[in-house]
Design brief:
Layout lengths: L2 E2 L6 E4 L4 E8 L6 E5 L4 E5 L2 E2 L6 E6 L3 E6 L8 E7 L5 E15 L8 E4 L4 E4 L2 E4 L3 E6 L5 E4 L2 E3 L2 E2 L2 E4 L8 E8 L6 E16 L4 E4 L5 E10 L3 E6 L4 E2 L6 E8 L2 E8 L8 E9 L2 E11 L3 H6 L22 E2 L5 H4 L3
Parallel strand pairs: 2-10, 11-20, 21-28
Antiparallel strand pairs: 1-3, 3-8, 4-5, 4-9, 5-6, 7-8, 9-10, 10-13, 12-18, 14-17, 14-19, 15-16, 19-20, 20-22, 22-26, 23-24, 23-27, 25-26, 27-28, 28-29
């Protein structure tokens, strides 16, 4: 009477590989060995013959004792339980399991696409990944930049298929990579661009500057805005300075949503003292900041107009200067600035 000589070992393989399940039978005599796929109730082989029409299934044996079921070019649908049966009365059988590992894949839906949001809103990025084993999802910024997750808190990555950003700001803007891995190569990723819109802001380091006639002077102003802003300088009477000439040299250094504005006065003249404004505007509004240039007497003139100092010992004259930033928000003419 035939009997099984060993249990069927479970097999784990990857998609595209070949899986081989072995069934050992002692004293088979004239009986036959049958392989079945239990999940689909399909008879695959009988003795040395392949019954199924699936061309990826094969059968070999070793001295009619060990019967090998071959599954070539394994697919995810091949996963499941396989039975080795001896056609005794009643039949004898045992089962083994085929586990199919599938490399990760990122689904187009419901995975997030590129997003455009207003600063201060809440944002949810999603990454839907499939595979076997279930993939692990990691979020990173393109270029290995850190991710702001709180006041003064930055992390290199965020784990999980859902990435929530509370009150998104301009520091969050950029490209994010959703990376899915499960130990089965290759890992996959999807790039999601997060764009944050916000109105202009302006920062000026020196708002009150002393200069002598004939001196070369550079005014500086820093602005931030997105979408990209229009930036220019004006004088106190509204004169717009947009192009370099004999007197002025305006320069804009653009770095993403930041603009470093410089205005160089080649040689300060009597008419150059007064107020200057750096103006920044985009679709969401305007902002400007003021810089005042005041006259400083030359050393020669100071010596000519000098008066004797007090003879009282320890006397000192102290000046205190208060710097005030004046910021004006102007309602823009949107049709003129951004024609249809």
């Amino acid at each position: 009477v035939p009997k099984f000589g060993a249990l069927i070992n479970n097999v784990t393989t990857s998609v595209g590989q070949e899986a081989i399940l072995a069934c050992v039978v002692d004293d088979l005599a004239t009986y036959k060995v049958v392989w079945l796929h239990l999940d689909t109730y399909t008879i695959l082989t009988m003795a040395s013959h392949v019954i199924t029409k699936n061309h990826r299934i094969g059968m070999t044996h070793s001295d009619h004792r060990t019967w090998y079921l071959h599954v070539r070019d394994v697919r995810e649908t091949d996963r499941g339980w396989y039975m080795c049966q001896i056609n005794t009365d009643p039949p004898k059988s045992q089962v083994g399991h085929l586990e199919v590992m599938v490399p990760p894949d990122i689904l187009d839906y419901p995975t997030s696409t590129d997003m455009v949001v207003r600063e201060g809103t809440n944002v949810t990025l999603r990454c839907a990944a499939t595979g076997s084993p279930q993939p692990k999802v990691t979020w990173r910024r393109e270029g290995a930049e850190s991710i702001p997750v709180g006041p003064g808190q930055d992390v290199p990555s965020v784990e999980g298929p859902i990435f929530n950003i509370t009150r998104v700001n301009r520091l969050h803007m950029g490209a994010y990579l959703c990376i899915a891995t499960n130990g089965v190569p290759p890992a996959v990723s999807k790039r999601i661009m997060l764009t944050v819109h916000f109105p202009p802001t302006i920062w000026i380091e020196n708002q009150l500057i002393g200069a002598q006639e004939g001196q070369k002077m550079t005014l500086e102003c820093h602005s931030e805005a997105y979408p990209k802003s229009t930036n220019y300088w004006t004088r106190d009477k509204g004169e717009v300075i947009t192009k370099a000439g004999d007197k002025y040299e305006p320069v804009l250094v653009d770095n993403g949503y930041k603009v470093h504005m410089k205005l160089t006065i080649r040689a300060v003249g009597p008419s150059d003292f007064g107020s200057y404004k750096c103006v920044c505007m985009n679709y969401f509004g305007d902002m400007d900041g003021s810089i005042e240039i005041y006259r400083v007497a030359s050393d020669k003139k100071e010596r000519g107009n000098s008066t004797p100092s007090s003879s009282a010992p320890g006397n000192a004259l102290t000046f205190q200067m208060f710097i005030v930033l004046t910021v004006t928000i102007v309602r823009p003419n949107m049709q003129a600035l951004f024609p249809a």
